[in-house]
Design a protein that fits this description.
392 residues, alpha/beta, Aspartate Aminotransferase, domain 2, three-stranded antiparallel beta sheet, 15 helices, single chain
Length: 392
């Protein structure tokens, strides 16, 4: 056993490189969060003054943060969870029974399906438009609701829409989805893993029954942490207290919330989310600047022979997926095959493109400066020209 390998763990991605990995851009810590991370790095660090419930801790101000986060999102009640996937699991577990059906969009994250499988719930998908835009047809939710009711005799127990999907970065029509669900009496979940902390969600009208987010994906927090926000009417059901009692000890925990297994994030992740919160509140006001920057990126990269943006046009989100047949053609003849693009970008100071992929790539320049975006564009143009691809 070589223990020396664990003694000097370092990560230089953000120091030495421009990181364009879409899953990481919204989770880059603020300077304040980095300080808080060191201060609260010990395991149960936020439990120093706990009286039994994480969301009621006053020092650090976790109770107040829950209230402020709910206000920021325009929702009534908030809980911090161990990640967006656990927020989904909590809602499915509380509202669905084995054999029920939930309706989701065809671009839903795989954890949506696992949450359903975890509780024995069937899943029906609402289709998208296919290549090249892959838009989710939100109006089709009503048709799928009808099909489920015709087949099972009951309406769906739950419906979920991915606000922005993780594959193409399409922004779905959340308000239309919510109105359809409200009209049909189906509880609705809006998965905001890629929009919470980027966009101002407080203006949604009407509000979804549940809003789910990711702290480490969009709220400048370290992993793992997520958000479960809801309207008041669901709090008693989803946040029900425990009723079990030990048959020998007689112990019970009525104040512990069953779907969350009591407490969730007991240390550094929640504190980094709190420390970054003032920055996040301000940065959502600059969302249009991020969209403009993303559109410039797409325009410049599409100057490369064969490159085409997938997903809706014009872009309304920072996550970009590109078809890159020219790079793929080069990879077939290159000694390093699909790894050539990753390695040549790295040589130019760019990280985050998945190693081995050249047929299509995903990237994001969210939070980067204009100068950094220029460096990303120049790196792609330079690689293309060096390998004989035309840059118009």
């Amino acid at each position: 056993m070589n223990l020396d390998r664990y003694r000097r763990l370092v990560r230089d991605t953000e120091r030495r490189y421009i990181n364009v990995n879409p899953i990481q851009r919204g989770g880059v810590l603020t300077p304040e969060a980095k300080k808080a991370l060191i201060e609260f790095g010990d395991g149960y660090s936020v439990c120093d003054f706990c009286e039994g419930l994480l969301h009621e801790v006053e020092k650090p101000p976790i109770r107040q943060f829950h209230e402020d986060l709910a206000e920021f999102l325009g929702m009534d009640v908030v809980r911090v969870t161990a990640g967006a996937r656990y927020s989904k699991e909590a809602v499915v577990g509380a509202l669905c029974e084995e054999g029920d059906v939930m309706v989701v969009d065809a671009l839903a994250h795989y954890t949506t399906f696992l949450a359903a499988e975890r509780w024995g719930v069937g899943v029906r998908e609402v289709p998208h438009t296919g290549h090249p835009e892959y838009r989710v047809r939100v109006e089709e939710y009503e048709r799928v609701f009808d099909e489920v009711e015709d087949e099972t005799g009951d309406p769906p127990a739950l419906a979920l829409l991915t606000h922005v999907d993780s594959e193409y970065g399409n922004l779905a029509d959340a308000e239309r989805f919510i109105k359809i669900c409200r009209k049909r009496g189906v509880p609705c979940v809006l998965n905001c893993a890629y929009t919470m902390g980027r966009m101002d969600l407080s203006r949604l009208n009407p509000k979804p029954d549940f809003m789910i987010g990711s702290g480490h994906k969009g709220l400048a927090a370290c992993a793992p942490c997520g958000v479960l926000a809801m309207r008041d009417e669901w709090a008693d059901e989803v946040l029900r207290g425990s009723s079990i009692e030990g048959d020998v000890s007689g112990r019970s925990w009525p104040h512990k919330e069953v779907e969350l297994l009591g407490c969730t994030v007991m240390g550094a992740p929640i504190v980094t989310m709190m420390a970054s919160f003032p920055h996040v509140v301000e940065r959502v006001k600059r969302w249009e600047d991020e969209v403009r920057k993303t559109r410039r990126l797409v325009e410049e990269l599409e100057r490369i022979e064969g490159v085409r943006q997938l997903g809706e046009r014009p872009k309304r989100h920072d996550l970009v997926k590109l078809e890159t047949p020219g790079f793929h053609r080069i990879a077939r003849e290159h000694p390093r095959k699909g790894y050539f693009l990753y390695e040549e970008l790295k040589e130019r100071g760019i990280m985050g493109i998945q190693p081995g992929q050249t047929k299509a790539i995903k990237l994001s320049v969210y939070g980067l400066s204009e100068e950094q975006v220029d460096r990303v564009i120049e790196a792609f143009h330079g690689i293309a020209e060096e390998h004989g691809l035309e840059v118009s």
